[in-house]
């Protein structure tokens, strides 16, 4: 087995510390990846601090992984040594259920295996991308197009596909009015993708502090939700609203912004249950939905789309020993817009 350098949390209130993890021996269909960059997702923080419950310690977070293939198993056909590759939020699934067969492995009804904090078939727990190396079955390894640098590509493996999948599913494109709630690590990528798809994009943010960025990234309009006039002016305006924030909002107020047959899709995952009045749904035949990441084929489609349209995450690269400070800064919304760890510092 390979021993890889990593950063792990050992309890909910412990800072992440440098450690070593054992990666499994290379099987015939496995790919060994030398990680170059790993993005920091808010999900990493929720899990490391057990804010969602169910964290198994020690845990090595990280599901925005970009690197270089270092070795391949004897039956691997999709990837070669030296290839530029990525790994997202999950690394295995049953492969036979309806979701897997249809290309929605993320919704596998049997045993989707998350990239970290997820139990595998042999009873071990997965350790994620805050590490120097990782071994992943070839079917769950993505190809990073040459047009994308690895550091800015890493956050696309979660943030990018988290926005791309619902935008595609709900038909964002020319003639569609799309609103993005939040201009953070998820939201800023969503603005870029929705604009590239041809939709008219509006940002709904608590303040106007990031308005200049939002307009630069492709938004046509930018509103402060702290201003009550916003909800009056935008009533029944949008075909699709994507909520990227992880706090509980006044859902009835946001539902009122949907046009006939409009949908509000939850992408952020607040700790408390979401409350909405039935009348808010019945009016205009509105829908409240949710979405996770996309399947492997759709994630590859997203990477190719981003390369074609020059879409990248706005990042701040940090060293591994800055992870704990970066966690605190993410919670304070003190980053524009995504931290990426230089895996060479593990």
Number of helices: 11
Unreliable stretches, pLDDT < 50, 5 or more residues?
A: none
- Beta-strand residue fraction: 25-35%
- Helix content percent band: 10-25%
- The end-to-end span amounts to 18 Å
SSE-based structural type: alpha/beta
N to C succession of SSEs: EEEHEEEHEEEHHEHEHEHEHEHEHEHE
User: Rg, please?
Assistant: 20 Å
Average pLDDT number? 96
In total, the number of strands is 17
Most strands sheet: 7 strands, mixed
Backbone shape:
globular
Summarize this structure as a short list of keywords or feature phrases.
346 residues, seven-stranded mixed beta sheet, six-stranded parallel beta sheet
Written description of the protein model:
This protein has 346 residues and is of the alpha/beta class. Helix content is 24%, strand content 26%. The protein contains 11 helices and 17 strands. The strands form 4 sheets. Strands 3, 4, 5, 8, 9, 16 and 17 form a 7-stranded mixed sheet that branches. The chain has a 6-stranded parallel sheet with strand order 12-11-10-13-14-15, with helices on one face. Helix 4 packs across helix 5 (187-197) and helix 4 crosses helix 10 (296-309). Its cofactor is Zn(2+). This is alcohol dehydrogenase (NADP(+)). One of its GO terms (molecular function) is oxidoreductase activity.
């Amino acid at each position: 087995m390979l021993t890889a350098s990593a950063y792990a949390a050992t309890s909910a209130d412990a800072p992440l510390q440098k450690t070593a993890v054992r990666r499994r021996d290379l099987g015939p269909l496995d790919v060994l990846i030398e990680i170059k960059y790993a993005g920091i997702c808010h999900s990493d923080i929720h899990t490391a601090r057990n804010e969602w419950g169910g964290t198994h310690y020690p845990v090595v977070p990280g599901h925005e992984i970009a690197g270089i293939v270092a070795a391949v198993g004897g039956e691997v056909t999709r990837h070669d040594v030296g290839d530029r590759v990525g790994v997202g939020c999950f690394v295995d699934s049953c492969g036979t259920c309806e979701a897997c067969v249809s290309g929605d492995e993320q919704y596998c009804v049997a045993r989707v295996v998350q990239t970290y904090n997820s139990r595998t078939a042999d009873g071990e727990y997965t350790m994620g991308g805050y590490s120097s190396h990782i071994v992943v079955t070839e079917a769950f390894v993505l190809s990073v197009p040459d047009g994308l640098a690895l550091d800015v590509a890493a956050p696309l493996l979660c943030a990018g596909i988290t926005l791309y999948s619902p935008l595609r599913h709900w038909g964002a494109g020319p003639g569609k009015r799309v609103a993005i709630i939040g201009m953070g690590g998820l939201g800023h990528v969503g603005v870029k993708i929705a604009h590239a798809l041809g939709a008219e994009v509006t940002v709904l943010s608590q303040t106007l502090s990031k308005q200049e960025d939002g307009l630069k990234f492709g938004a046509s309009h930018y509103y402060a939700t702290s201003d009550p006039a916003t909800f009056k002016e935008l009533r029944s305006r949008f075909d699709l609203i994507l909520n990227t924030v992880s706090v509980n909002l006044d859902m009835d107020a946001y539902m009122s912004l949907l046009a006939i047959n409009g949908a509000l899709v939850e992408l952020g995952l607040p700790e408390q249950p979401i409350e909405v009045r039935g009348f808010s749904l019945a009016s205009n035949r509105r829908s409240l939905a949710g979405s996770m990441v996309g399947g492997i084929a759709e994630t590859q489609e997203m990477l190719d789309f981003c390369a074609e349209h020059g879409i990248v995450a706005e990042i701040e690269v940090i060293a591994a020993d800055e992870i704990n400070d970066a966690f605190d800064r993410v919670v304070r919304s003190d980053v524009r817009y995504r931290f990426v760890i230089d895996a060479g510092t593990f």
